[in-house]
Amino acid sequence: MEIKINESELIEASNEGADEFLAVFIDKYKEVTKGEVTADTMAQLNGYQNTLLAFELFRDQISEGGFVQLIQNGYGGYIFDNPFAKSMRVFGASKLSKLIYKAKEVYDANKKNLEKETTEEEFYSMYVDFEIFDEMEEEFFEIEEESTNVVAHYVDDHLDQFATIVK
Question: Is 3 exposed, middle or buried (0-12, 13-18, 19+ CB in 10 A)?
Fold first, then answer.
């Protein structure tokens, strides 16, 4: 599916910063996928677009509730069983890539426990059971801005992979 973005909208957003620039693309992807991450909706996006959407989803989930929330909300496979970490390295966000690989090791070793259905009480106790993620989350917050800027530069340098820019 062709994603079209208005050039003037993109220029305006880029003047506001990396987050706003990326949001122009991500908002279009969410519109196309109706905000759902399923095999059917993801097939509507190319690999670059899926990676950028995964980046936003990753940032949102980690910022709101960390790796436990990301996984409990059903995004573990989308992030860890796809080449997201490799893509971040290709985009130039090598620190983020390494962090995702580190978290993937914990995810892979504990997938069954991390993905099981939980009560609210069990969910909150997972934060104690998986304190190993705390350090990784702190590391993410330290590199988030840098990673976002690197991803935004990559997108800017490869616009045609992410959308068709129209005047």
Answer: middle
Indicate the DSSP class of residue 6.
Answer: E
pLDDT tens for 19-55 read 999 999 999 999 988 888 777 888 899 999 999 999 9
Q: Which long-range contacts (CB under 8 A, 24 or more apart) does 116-122 make?
A: 118/72
Residue 34 is predicted with a pLDDT of: 86
Mean pLDDT of 66-85: 95
Is the separation of the CB atoms in 82 and 119 below 8 Å?
A: no
The answer for residues whose C-beta is within 8 angstroms of residue 125's C-beta and 6 or more apart is none
Q: What number of other Cβ atoms are within 10 A of residue 160's Cβ? A: 8
Tell me the two tokens of residue 34. Answer: 């109706």
Q: What pLDDT, in 10s, does the model give residues 96-152? A: 999 999 999 999 999 999 999 999 999 999 999 999 999 999 999 999 999 999 999
Q: State how far the Cα of 46 lies from the Cα of 12, in Å rounded to an integer.
A: 25
Q: What is the pTM of this model?
A: 0.93
Quick one: tokens of 44? 């509507």
Q: What pLDDT, on a 0 to 100 scale, did the predictor assign at position 52?
A: 96
User: What b-and-e string marks burial along 39-72, b requiring 16 or more CB atoms within 10 Å of the CB?
Assistant: eebbeebeebbbbbbbbbbbbebbeebbbbbbbb
